[in-house]
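Dear colleague,

Thank you for sharing your sequence with our group. We've completed the structure prediction you requested, and as agreed, I am returning the results in plain text so they can be pasted directly into your records. Please verify that the sequence below matches your submission; if there's any discrepancy, let me know and we will rerun it promptly.
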Amino acid sequence: MVNEAARCLEEGVVDNARYLDMAMVMGTGFPAFRGGLLRYADAEGLESIVARLQKLEKQYGERSSPAGLLVEMSEKGETFYDDP
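Please find the predicted structure tokens below.
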């Protein structure tokens, strides 16, 4: 889900992380106490998420490859929110 959310941001489907997180909480029932999907990703650590996706990519192929945005943010030590 984090990977697809990052792709939505990357492709301009949604304008920012806050909008996406609100949609996930209100629309899919993602746990509000987690702050949303991308807030959760920040808390888990983007480096960790990218590493897991790369492992899945080796097992299952390209469909599991991490979104370019996730890789770029991970390499730069960035987060979706200023205060993860």
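Summary note from our side: Residues 36 and 71 are 20 Å apart (CA to CA).

Kind regards,
the structure core
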